[in-house]
Write a structure and sequence with these properties.
With 184 residues, the chain is of the alpha+beta class. The chain has 3 helices and 6 strands.
């Protein structure tokens, strides 16, 4: 029995693991890896922030581009519409003159002309075109084109005394100036 006891003492237990020779070196390597990982994480966070900033800037630029092109499109549409109306105005003027002629109001031709003129007025109104109110107003070079001046005590200084051709506005923009006579 003594032999067996002595044999058991010399054998190492089966469950024990051998310890590393230099314990400090292992913990330092682990710290170095962790520090390197932290550095990489910081770099990745900086890169992410840079990419996020670029994305936000690009999204803002795209939004500004979209708004600008929408405004330009609307402006082009309004300009094209105003050009079309401007080309139609001489026909409107002729209809107005024909409808204003004194005389046979029972004549079917005159009644037809008056109805056509009223339709033209409705089309202009529905398109956002308004006639510039000039008669009796103070002369405004932004809206009126003075072709004649008169001296008349009946009218005030720079007052429009006669309208030769009506002016028109569309969406707050003058598309044709009113041709007027101004009193001094």
């Amino acid at each position: 029995m003594t032999q067996e006891n002595s044999d058991n003492k010399t054998q190492e237990p089966a469950g024990d693991v051998a310890e590393p020779e230099n314990r400090e070196e292992t913990s330092e390597e682990t710290f170095t890896l962790t520090r390197a990982q932290m550095d990489r994480m910081e770099e990745a966070a900086k890169e992410l922030e840079t990419l996020k900033d670029q994305f936000v800037r690009q999204a803002a630029e795209y939004d500004n581009y979209r708004k600008r092109t929408a405004r330009e499109k609307e402006t082009l549409w309004q300009d094209a519409k105003a050009d079309t109306v401007l080309k139609f105005l001489p026909v409107y003027d002729n209809l107005a003159r024909a409808a204003a002629v004194e005389g046979d109001d029972e004549n079917p031709h005159k009644q037809g002309l008056v109805k056509i003129f009223q339709q033209a007025q409705e089309i202009l109104k529905s398109s956002g075109v308004t006639e510039i109110d000039a008669l009796g107003q103070t002369f405004d070079p932004e809206k009126h084109n003075a072709v004649n001046h008169i001296d008349d005590e009946q009218y005030g200084e720079n007052e429009v005394s006669q309208v030769f051709q009506p002016g028109f506005m569309m969406n707050g923009k003058v598309i044709r100036h009113a041709v007027v006579q101004v009193a001094n």
